[in-house]
Amino acid sequence: MFTRTLLQNRKLASPQQPMRTATRLLRTFKQEDQPRLRINSVAPNFTANTTQGQLNFHEYLGSSWGVLFSHPADFTPVCTTELGAFARLKPEFDQRNVKLIGLSAEGVDKHNSWIKDIEEISSLQKFSFPIVGDVEREVAFLYDMVDEEGFKNLSGGIVATIRSVYVIDPSKKIRLIITYPASVGRNSAEVLRVIDALQKGDAKGVVTPVDWQPGQDVIIPPTVSDADATKKFGEFKTVKPYLRFTKA
User: Fold this and answer.
1) Fold held by 205-246
2) What Pfam families has UniProt attached to this entry (predicted)?
């Protein structure tokens, strides 16, 4: 069961603190209690039951990058294809030191049954990353995963969204947030591409242009002078004073 201690006084745990024991299935969610998550916010910590046992989110990530992605319910068609796609790409994420973790707003027992369908449909021998059981929708609230209509139903009722992706770096900062509508499947290859771009930028002090793929030229930030760019990168091509390309 998802856990938290602060239901009595209606205050959220700070982003650095895990949540503890929930005292009832449904509660009143208030927008004024919801953390404002932005790029470079610390990813809120939580402790929850998953298909791989109870885990503390920050401890699970350790010193790795992470991708947390969510679903409103089990045995839903679009989400089934998405989980299968991420599972097939898991070796690629492993190579980049990225841990995957899914979430669905139903219980772990149901998740385990759903995984059998995912394995069958996606031709997987074994589904190998955890899925959080978020029956009480506490993590969905904490991470602001729902649309306007869905928020009204968080305490009980149908929520069509809870369809967000968060890329989190080893310092536990959120580096990417994408929220999808119910009718549009995610692009798992794009999540992988973004991680490649973020890791390249962090390692080399560069930024990446539109549709960038590994191996293509990168952009030197405007904050770096030409003289410093020559020292750091060697040769580069100037298209405009503010747009300079160099080898990755």
Assistant:
1) Antioxidant, Horf6; Chain A, domain 2 (3.30.1020)
2) 1-cysPrx_C, AhpC-TSA
CATH 3.30.1020.10 maps onto the chain at 205-246
Most confident of the following: 6-10, 99-103, 135-139: 99-103
Q: What is the DSSP string of 43-90?
A: PPP-EEEEBTEEEEHHHHHTTSEEEEEEESSSS-HHHHHHHHHHHHTH
Cα(137)–Cα(143) distance, integer angstroms? 10
Distance of CA 231 to the CA centre of its chain: 36
The H or E element containing residue 191 is helix 188-204
Delimit the CATH 3.40.30.10 region(s) of the chain.
31-186
Which CATH superfamily includes the segment(s) 31-186? Glutaredoxin (3.40.30.10)
Catalytic residue among 79, 98, 100, 101: 79
Supply the pTM of this predicted model: 0.86
* Cβ atoms of residues 221 and 205 within 8 Å: yes
- 165: β partners: 69, 178
Whether the CB-CB separation of 4 and 13 falls below 8 Å is answered with: yes
Q: What is the pLDDT of residues 80-117, one digit of tens each?
A: 999 999 999 999 999 999 999 999 999 999 999 999 99
Per the CB < 8 A criterion, the answer to whether 150 and 159 are in contact is yes
Please name the amino acid found at residue 175: R
Backbone φ, ψ for residue 188 (5° rounding): -65, -35
Q: How far apart are the C-alpha atoms of 34 and 172, rounded to whole Å?
A: 19
